[in-house]
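Supplementary Note 3. Input sequence used for the single-chain structure prediction.
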Amino acid sequence: MACSVEDGLEQVSLLGPTGELEVRVTFTERGPVLHVRAVDLVLEARDEVAIRCGRLRVETAGDLEQHCGGALRQTVGGDAHLHVAGDLRTEADAVETHARLGDVRLKANDDVRLNGERIKLNT
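The predicted structure, written as discrete structure tokens, is reproduced below.
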């Protein structure tokens, strides 16, 4: 463990066995900044993990997986935009899309296909 002052900021650093920086806490005017460098990072909690912040950004060079044993609820205060470079597939027992105000638009470069036992319009 090392304590230092760099650029007028106090720092507490934890070094690994090879002397590389693994954990650093820098105390800034805005508050502490935590930097963790690890091969893997595992967070375990018996009840809840809560992240409260002004902005959350997640980046991965590989895949991103989400697994939920119960219901998934997402609330967005503004607009939502999902961009997928490849194909997008949504699968569920039933799917409902509801526009509270305005139109529902489907746009395709090629055909639009509706396959169902019955296609009901305005029912």
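The first strand starts at residue 2 and ends at 6. The chain has a mean pLDDT of 94.
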